[in-house]
Amino acid sequence: MTFQRPTCTCNDAWHQRRRKVKLHHEKQDEESDAWKRLLDLINDAAVRNVEEWTPGSLMPPEEWHSIVTLPRQIGTLKSVRKLCLYGSSLVRIPPEIGEMTALQEFDPYTSYRLHWLPYEITRCPNLTESRISTRALYGNFKNRNPFPDLRHESDFLNSIRPKKCSVCNSPFDDTYTTRWISLNIATDVVPLLVFACSVSCIDSLPIPPDNYVLKPHRGGRSIEQPPRR
Ligand SMILES: [Zn+2]
More exposed terminus of the chain, fewer Cβ within 10 Å: N or C? Predict the structure, then answer.
């Protein structure tokens, strides 16, 4: 029996017409054997100073496809230059990817449920290559997939928020605010989720490339995107 990976209806015309565009809320089972194996694999890769890491090739397929996010410990992978997540079932990547200081190539190709990345990926100083299934991304120029409205996601966002501001890296006190912004990441334009401590951090974000929403925003149907290309 072959294993069928989970599918995604977010970008179906029906769901978009019905305005059901929401973030994936799938919760990671952190008690599972798969999660524990993945933590061991990260530890092993960190100890061995691995330069290319392909976790999906190191786990049984059914375990790999039960992984919806990566552990925060990926930040310990200081030697990994190429991160291969081909064909994963990931729905989000933790902000700690920004601590992978050697990362040059990010390859989550055909991870069709991965619609956005954390803003912290902009901290990877050596990241120059990416291979992303861009049609799955919010706001991509080919289909202009709508961005989920962050104002309707506060409980979920609270459950995944980092401990520090995505922009200035200061620890949060009680309050934070969230925005979408589309920016060039290596060879693709990618929608990034920002958790910011202040309006001044939002104001300091870079200007998005032409042909994308030109400022940070909260998503939702009221956001006007440029026409498809
Ligand atoms: Zn800040």
Answer: N
Question: What is the distance in A from the centroid of ligand 1 to the CA of 178?
Answer: 11
Cα of 182 vs centre of ligand 1, distance in Å, is 18
Q: Ligand 1: distance of its center to the CA of 45 in Å? A: 32
User: What is the 119 CA–ligand 1 centroid distance (Å)?
Assistant: 12
**What predicted TM-score, i.e. pTM, was given to this entire model?**
0.94
Tell me which of 11-25, 71-85, 148-162, 204-218 is least confident: 11-25
The CA 108 to ligand 1 mean position distance, Å, reads: 28
Q: Given pLDDT bands bounded at 50, 70 and 90, which one contains residue 151?
A: very high
How would you write the chain as a 3-class SS string? CCCCCCCCCCCCHHHHHCCCCCCCCCCCCCCCHHHHHHHHHHHHHHHCCCCEECHHHCCCHHHHCCCCCCCHHHHHCCCCCEEECCCCCCCCCCHHHHHCCCCCEEECCCCCCCCCEEHHHHHCCCCCEECCCHHHCCCCCCCCCCCCCHHHCHHHHHHHCCCECCCCCCECCCCCEEEEEEEEECCEEEEEEEEECCHHHHHCCCCCCCCCCCCCECCCCCCCCCCCC
Q: Domain boundaries in the chain?
A: 25-203
Distance from Cα 95 to the centre of ligand 1, integer Å: 14
Å from CA of 168 to ligand 1 middle: 4
